[in-house]
Design brief:
Elements lengths: L7 H7 L4 H35 L4 H7 L7 H8 L8 H8 L2 H13 L1 H11 L3 H12 L8 E2 H11 L3 H17 L8 E2 L12 H7 L18 H13 L9 E5 L17 H6 L3 E2 L12 E3 L8 E4 L1 H9 L3 H14 L18 H13 L13 H13 L10 H10 L2
Antiparallel strand pairs: 1-2, 3-4, 3-6, 5-6
């Protein structure tokens, strides 16, 4: 593994090292970076031979790698560890925020004809395709700004994801060679995901569709997402999507329910769950959508669900329970559905989504420019909370909770 020790000189300077020492380490940093870039260019030259033996033309390879460098931003993002683990309710607050729902409804109206055609052709509910689009790129607003060839070559060279990087890089080169996109326009995320619905190259090759009929599978087109949305529907169809069936339904569990049965590994027919006392939140029998599992994403104190086959199909797109729930719930909300009937066990003092939005609105009113409220209590909101606490003469803790909101309501009108 090749490491780039950026920022070492800054750390020494902050710790009180003399300027001459800092300058020496700054020079060493630059030397290490230069050596890594030099090593990367040698790797690019050597990998060219590999690519040519795999059917990539010299013309395609040389054009794709023109100006490509080792991307230290990709390396940093690859190694970055999450600062905290988000609770399921915080994740869903963001994933199904009012703004994302409104934007999804606007996109449904704007692309209704295309979405209807896609649903008819692939048999995948348009609300699910829309939800994936919303989660993956905010309906095309955030498709990524990193050159995919540079990102994947960096991952292949850096060592930790060498096998993945090489495999995806070869497929990316094949996509370029086919003529779907030029290398300079093949942009996406640091991990190689591309376009409106963030396909990695192998998934693109397996599922991408030319829905517009122009001869190109253009999942990047900022004005026309048709190919990307059709490609997503095709992916889900191949994964086994069942049309007109939900991902799951919220349910009520009976007293004395055996919580050992609340597992995605335990499947039973709706009739069997009904025999065991499980009911919809309206007290009805579980609809017959095939075998399902009782799912408790926040444990016994939170909402309960019976999830069906389509829940697991969504997980083929992203193998996370929270993601599958977010896609399903966002799709339901776009189509006019409401929130879950049972509250999440947020704990004492924790804010609900509407209260998070209220905090941000009041902070904006108080002069702290947070932009449009989104309910995400991120670094910018936390800094504003701390700043206003200081202005109140209080010890700042940056915590937006019920106590803070009560004071904020009184002081900001």
């Amino acid at each position: 593994m090749r490491l780039i020790y950026t920022g070492l000189a800054v750390a020494l300077a902050l710790s009180g090292a003399q300027t001459v020492q800092a300058n020496t380490f700054q020079k060493n940093d630059l030397i290490i970076v230069a050596q890594s870039q030099s090593g990367f260019q040698r790797w690019v030259k050597n990998f060219r031979n590999v690519a040519l033996t795999k059917g990539i033309s010299a013309r395609t390879y040389d054009r794709a790698f023109k100006g490509v460098k080792l991307n230290t931003r990709v390396m940093q993002l690859d190694r970055k560890q999450a600062e905290f683990s988000r609770q399921i309710w915080d994740y869903l607050d963001t994933a199904t925020s009012p703004k994302r729902v409104r934007n999804g409804q606007a996109m449904l109206a704007k692309h209704k004809r295309t979405l209807n055609r896609i649903e008819q052709k692939y048999g995948v509910d348009k609300k699910i395709v829309l939800a994936i689009w919303g989660l993956e790129s905010s309906y095309g607003k955030n498709m990524g700004d990193i050159n995919i060839i540079e990102a994947l070559a960096t991952l292949a060279y850096d060592g930790r994801r060498e096998k993945f990087g090489k495999q995806q890089l070869l497929e990316a080169l094949r996509i370029i060679q086919r003529g779907d996109i030029t290398a300079n326009r093949m942009m996406g995320s640091w991990a190689g995901a591309m376009g409106h619905t963030q396909f990695i190259p192998t998934s693109y090759q397996a599922s991408a569709q030319d829905f517009t009929g122009d001869g190109k599978r253009n999942v990047w087109d900022p004005k026309d997402p048709s190919d990307a949305l059709a490609s997503t529907a095709n992916y889900l169809k191949k994964a086994g999507w069942t049309h007109n069936q939900p991902w799951g339904v919220e349910v009520k569990l009976p007293k004395g329910f055996n919580y050992g049965n609340a597992s995605l590994k335990v499947k039973a027919t709706p009739a069997r769950w009904t025999e065991l006392g499980v009911r919809t939140v309206r007290g009805k029998k579980i609809p017959n959508y095939g075998q399902g599992s009782v799912f408790l994403p926040a444990g016994a104190d939170g909402p309960a669900f019976v999830v069906f086959k389509n829940f697991f199909v969504i997980k083929r797109y992203n193998n996370a329970n929270s993601y599958a729930m977010a896609v399903g719930h966002l799709g339901d909300r776009i189509k006019g559905g409401g929130n879950f009937s049972k509250e999440w066990p947020r704990g004492p003092g924790a804010l609900k989504l509407d209260e998070k939005l209220e905090v941000q609105k009041l902070l904006n009113r108080a002069g702290y420019d947070l932009g449009e409220p989104d309910g995400i209590i991120g670094p910018k909101t936390i800094d504003a909370v701390s700043a206003i606490q200081i202005s109140w003469g209080k010890q700042p803790n940056g915590k937006a909770d019920q106590d803070f909101l009560k004071v904020l309501r009184k002081k900001v009108r």
